[in-house]
Amino acid sequence: MDGTATRFVGRRRELTALKEVLGGHGARLVDLVAEPGMGRSALLAEFLPAAAGHEVLAAAGGTGGAHPRLTAERLRGTLPEVLVVDDVHQASPEVVTALHELLRTPPPDLMLVLSHRPRQSPTHLLAALGTAATTWRTTRLELPPLTAADTETLLPDTLCGRHRTTAHADSGGNPRYLRLLRSWCAGQGCGGGELFEEATALPEQGAAELLLELEALPARALLVARAAAVAGQDTYLAAVLAGLDHADLLSEVDTLVAADVLRPTNIPGRFAFRHPALRAVTYAGAPAGWRLGAHARAAEYLRERGTPAAGYARHVERAGQAGPAGTATLLAAADELADRAPGTAAGFYRAALRELPDAEAPAPLLALARCAVATGDLRGGAEALSRHDDLPSAVPGAGAETRALLAQYAGRYTQARSLLRKALSTVDSPQLRLPLAQTSLWDTGWHFSDDALLTATGSGDPALQALALAVHGITRLANGSAGPAQRSAREAARVADRQAGADLARTPAILTSLGWLETHLEQHSAALRHFTQGLALSRASGRWPAMIPALTGLATVHLREGELRAAAGAANQAVSLSESPGAEDLRAMALTARAQVSLARGEVLAALADSHQAATLVPPDSPWWRRARLTAAAAHLHDGDPATAVTLTLDAAGGDTLPELPAWDHVPAGSQLAHAELLLGNTSEAALWSKRVTESARALGLPALTAQANLTAARVAQGPGEALVHATAALTASNPLLTATAHTLAAQALTNLNEHARAADHHAAARALAARHGTTPLPTATPAQCPPTEQHVLSQREYEIATLVSQGRTNRQIARELAVSHKTVETHLGRIFTKLAVSSRAEIANMVGRATVVARPRRA
Known about the structure:
disordered N terminus, two-stranded antiparallel ribbon, five-stranded parallel β-sheet, 9 strands, mainly alpha, Rossmann fold
């Protein structure tokens, strides 16, 4: 078993509370309650060593546990200083009565810890605990679910990306269900499906505790539990499967509710397992032959009751007796569910195709490919298309939209365009024109969105119209037309917000494309709303690939708002979801987003690793190749390598006119180039780039881009007065990362103007923003007002350490951030003191702030 399974995680607060009660006096009662599997026993095991200096009796109230079973006689005898009773809900009536008496007449100096599941505890014991506050000093400890961060610490590296992303939600933060989930996941090659959906095989580990709980049930109650695992919440169907009349079944349901196996739902007459994991174990633990018969009876019962095909196709599939009628049922259900539940539909298509003759297989194979790709089973989608193409009755080139999507996911945008344009030469439809327009979302050389908008408008489908408007807006903005882009964004949002969730879930790109348009227009609140909505709809329908652009968008918006923790969480989820072979473009997208977040946090090596990996995953015809190269350039600039930054930026942009970049990237790319040329000493080149950046920002008229242009102008300004004007203008930016840099540049200018008090205020504001948001701004070098002499030129590493010293970091903090030893930092600092002829860290900070210290450029 992985060592992470046994770590004590997420219960430090409760353990501290127990220790505090231990240190008290008088009659002290701790009422320790939790849902099954939340870790009561693990908490007590951690507590008992702390009570080693006291006389302790640790006992189990029920038949299980690591301690001997408590007896009523022992409770009525001489008691120790500390009495810990676990699993009180399983105690015998005699023990419960003795505990009740003890609660009414507490000993003068006893710490009593009662651990139990409240749903299964006797009512009179709960009543006694409720009234014990009058005679005991009572502490109630209820173990909450683990946090998402605690859950993450318990996940092994072998867990597949999709289950890592959903582990917290699937387990409900319950350690027991988390262990079961880990056991059921097949690792990196796992398909990422719903693990708790009627698995037919029990995992080798993780299910034992739940099986013991089920085996403790009376035989007829266990039969009803198994029937419920097959039937779901339909008690009448469960009665049929269990061979009971409805009244007898409800009697057994009472037993299952008392055992907390089933719980009433909000719908009268409906009951559900307390967690899907328990249902899955109950289902998998039933005899295989009984399961087949139960599904066959369920299919027959529901068919006779007039249930639509989608309502009983699952039973037809599980019964394994399709036949012509069953195959027709599976196909009808798959067609009905293809849009709202493509994963389920794919399973029905596969089951039907096992029975279909080749002459009838082409259409179901194309539908299977579409559903498989929608859920992220890219290999299965490609195999379905290949099988389709091998059929004599197949239409050549059919399924162009799915083929193009596979090519796009792999980063082959040119191939995707070719497939779609070829298909359009045969049949013209918005379902083909819109994907074609989407392949050019981040490019400036293709103009497919006008045609897509016209055909979508004529289709009468509001969902397609919203998508076409969003795509049209992005391409307009990419070509520098902010006004038309804003109008398209407003109209797309108006149409999309009026659509039902089912229509939006059918085409998640509506919300994602709209969110990206709003992001580039700096409409962050609207973008967050649409990304979040798209993410929720994609998750609910199992469209895993569609979640990656939404998560990347969320990471980008959070980053621009300075919410780096949220940005990192979204980016990490996107990376986890993008591990499938054939999804290289999605992975490059996710890695680029994570690199941008890492760079903002000052984690330069991580940013370099992710951005370079992203660029190697996809060919240059993918826009994410350019995004990754731009991010790598920024990381090299932060790492003190301006020459490489220039090379990578111009490479990504397609030359010094930036022809391959959308208009919104002209400002950040030009700013990087100006900054890099400045660090290289090419002040005239830096000034030219600053001028072009200003013109680009003015053309779009967006506040953050305008602030970034002002920051660039402040860096290349000829004098401190001019630099101060531009830096002050940039302070109005809503982006805290830009604002922190503006404060730093303003402080530099004021220092050079000998206005040290005002400079200190700006330095303090920059440090406060950096601390609040966890940011590390890029180096803020400007042309030195007095050219530095050789003694002020530091190596790349020395300059990096001097910059961190100027930000108030300690040697240990610097060592952790740069991943070097404390001794290495001390050695570099000694050299810095010698080269700068200073004797204090404050003097280093002053020289860095006045830009009289520069890094020696790296050799290209």
